[in-house]
Amino acid sequence: MSTFATAAGLRSQTRMGHRIRVLAGVLITLIFLFPVFWMVLTSFKHQVDIFTTPPKFFFTPTFATYVEYFRRADIERRLINTVIVAAGSGLLSIVVGTMAGYALARIRLRGAATFGVLILLSRGVPPIALAVPMFLVARQLGLTDKHITLILAYSTFLIPYVMWLMRSFFISLPPELEESAMIDGCSRYGAFFKIILPISLPGLISTLIFSMILAWEELLFALVLTNRVASTIPVAIAGIAGDTINGANWGALTAVGTITVVPVVIFALLVQKWLIRGLADGATKG
Amino acid sequence: MMPSIVLLLITLAYPIFYTINISFTEFDLSTFGAGEWVGWSNYEEVLSDYRFWDALQVTLVYLVIALPLQIVLGFSIAFLINAEWSGRGAVRALFIIPMVVAPVVAGGIWRMILDPLWGLMNHALQTIGIGPLDWFGDPHLAMAAVIIIDTWRWTPFIVLIATAALLALPKDVFEAAKIDGAGWWATLWSVALPLLVPIIAATFVIRWLGAVKMFDIVLAATYGGPGKATNVINLFIYEEAFRSLRFAESSAMAVIVLVLTMILTGVFLYGSRKLEEQF
């Protein structure tokens, strides 16, 4: 066999391999997307089209579930609550966490390294170890079922998260940026607000959005710290899914599920480029 | 820096001390606060409670199967979907969708898909001659279901990290391997894998930190059932505290779990640092 023939054979073999790789990738993506597709599809079915053998892919779509269930289960108020809590805890954590992340990245402080390790460890604290005392203290102070309680509870995991991401982001910026500003007479705070913040804006916004998503989905604290007034959407979904008395209400489950997932998917797609970078930095650096 | 320390002290450190405090007392249900100091007796009670050990074992089984499965799947899929072609960007973007589906929603929709009677999964399996499988009635299948749901929800997260890692691999090393006549397998095994080991280790730590919090998916999909077959530790403690109102005992359990998690996290962090140095 000549050298030429071997090279050509190898090339066609790798091209074949490439095609298989692309095809397998697309197939797996479709499999992973299917449950979400099925949820959205089911939410537009009439009750009679949901429970069929075989399951139906084609049917006359309807908004009936949305209209009927939303009136009954107070979904509107829960939706507003979830938005308030997600936005509140996201904003609080981004303000506090960004400044702390900057301090960790730049200012030589005694104990900064220890504090950094503690922050990372704090991400391993099981929420249930916090939920019990939070419930008891909130009860004592008359703070159960209030938005502010949930916002503070969520900051326990959001602040460390923001700190960690923003710290690695600030480390990647050249220190000369602030140094030259400080030589020109800016204070450390001035340099931070005038120079660093504007550059970091895209990263900040993406971190903020991702923090809000985490708060938006949270279940345990919401379950424990709210009951009616400030209750959120995930609590409602847990209630529908776990309803063993009335049986599975798949229409309601998929309708509320769709409402919960669609806005988040849109946001996530908007920031996905940054997400890849941010996650990888958070995972590999430090 | 200061505001974050103060806030974290209030919302993180104070509750942990509160939990530790309660775990050493007899909880007073009339005042809803810590009662008389009883030393280690709550811990003795918890440690002799077989249900606590069962829940720990269930959690361990879940972790031991789900974590490696998700890491291997995540890195393999990342390799597949990063093949260069015109649709790569779109595929990569679409692949992050499951990871922003709220875990409780994931549990709910999979409960519907895996439903033994009307679910799509059993219908599909029957067309190829398997089943019907009683996903939520059989203890092993229920655990499998929980792991499937968790893997569906979390693998995209690992794919995302793996994608960034794969893109950051130095290209010239691979070209050199090709010129030296290394085959596909040899390239993967002795060139790519050693380069990826530190990132795989770091990914493992990150995923571990999430997986020990397993709660939402189980709550929505099986609620720990059938029997206690999927009753992970977080759900067990939750039930003990908020259904049985045994706050002192559940605090003791929470402290034990906290300590276990911290020790293991420390070990994993140390291990991943060591691996990073070696490669």
UniProtKB/TrEMBL annotation, chain A:
<keyword id="KW-0812">Transmembrane</keyword>
<feature type="transmembrane region" description="Helical">
    <location>
        <begin position="191"/>
        <end position="216"/>
    </location>
</feature>
<feature type="transmembrane region" description="Helical">
    <location>
        <begin position="148"/>
        <end position="170"/>
    </location>
</feature>
<feature type="domain" description="ABC transmembrane type-1">
    <location>
        <begin position="79"/>
        <end position="271"/>
    </location>
</feature>
<dbReference type="GO" id="GO:0005886">
    <property type="term" value="C:plasma membrane"/>
</dbReference>
<keyword id="KW-0813">Transport</keyword>
<dbReference type="Pfam" id="PF00528">
    <property type="entry name" value="BPD_transp_1"/>
</dbReference>
<keyword id="KW-0472">Membrane</keyword>
<feature type="transmembrane region" description="Helical">
    <location>
        <begin position="79"/>
        <end position="105"/>
    </location>
</feature>
<feature type="transmembrane region" description="Helical">
    <location>
        <begin position="250"/>
        <end position="271"/>
    </location>
</feature>
<dbReference type="InterPro" id="IPR050901">
    <property type="entry name" value="BP-dep_ABC_trans_perm"/>
</dbReference>
<dbReference type="GO" id="GO:0055085">
    <property type="term" value="P:transmembrane transport"/>
</dbReference>
<dbReference type="InterPro" id="IPR000515">
    <property type="entry name" value="MetI-like"/>
</dbReference>
<feature type="transmembrane region" description="Helical">
    <location>
        <begin position="20"/>
        <end position="41"/>
    </location>
</feature>
<keyword id="KW-1133">Transmembrane helix</keyword>
<comment type="similarity">
    <text>Belongs to the binding-protein-dependent transport system permease family.</text>
</comment>
<feature type="transmembrane region" description="Helical">
    <location>
        <begin position="112"/>
        <end position="136"/>
    </location>
</feature>
<keyword id="KW-1003">Cell membrane</keyword>
<protein>
    <submittedName>
        <fullName>Carbohydrate ABC transporter permease</fullName>
    </submittedName>
</protein>
<dbReference type="InterPro" id="IPR035906">
    <property type="entry name" value="MetI-like_sf"/>
</dbReference>
UniProtKB/TrEMBL annotation, chain B:
<feature type="transmembrane region" description="Helical">
    <location>
        <begin position="252"/>
        <end position="271"/>
    </location>
</feature>
<dbReference type="GO" id="GO:0055085">
    <property type="term" value="P:transmembrane transport"/>
</dbReference>
<dbReference type="Pfam" id="PF00528">
    <property type="entry name" value="BPD_transp_1"/>
</dbReference>
<feature type="transmembrane region" description="Helical">
    <location>
        <begin position="141"/>
        <end position="169"/>
    </location>
</feature>
<protein>
    <submittedName>
        <fullName>Sugar ABC transporter permease</fullName>
    </submittedName>
</protein>
<keyword id="KW-0813">Transport</keyword>
<dbReference type="InterPro" id="IPR000515">
    <property type="entry name" value="MetI-like"/>
</dbReference>
<keyword id="KW-0472">Membrane</keyword>
<dbReference type="InterPro" id="IPR035906">
    <property type="entry name" value="MetI-like_sf"/>
</dbReference>
<dbReference type="InterPro" id="IPR051393">
    <property type="entry name" value="ABC_transporter_permease"/>
</dbReference>
<keyword id="KW-1003">Cell membrane</keyword>
<comment type="similarity">
    <text>Belongs to the binding-protein-dependent transport system permease family.</text>
</comment>
<feature type="transmembrane region" description="Helical">
    <location>
        <begin position="60"/>
        <end position="81"/>
    </location>
</feature>
<keyword id="KW-0812">Transmembrane</keyword>
<keyword id="KW-1133">Transmembrane helix</keyword>
<dbReference type="GO" id="GO:0005886">
    <property type="term" value="C:plasma membrane"/>
</dbReference>
<feature type="transmembrane region" description="Helical">
    <location>
        <begin position="93"/>
        <end position="113"/>
    </location>
</feature>
<feature type="transmembrane region" description="Helical">
    <location>
        <begin position="181"/>
        <end position="206"/>
    </location>
</feature>
<feature type="domain" description="ABC transmembrane type-1">
    <location>
        <begin position="56"/>
        <end position="268"/>
    </location>
</feature>
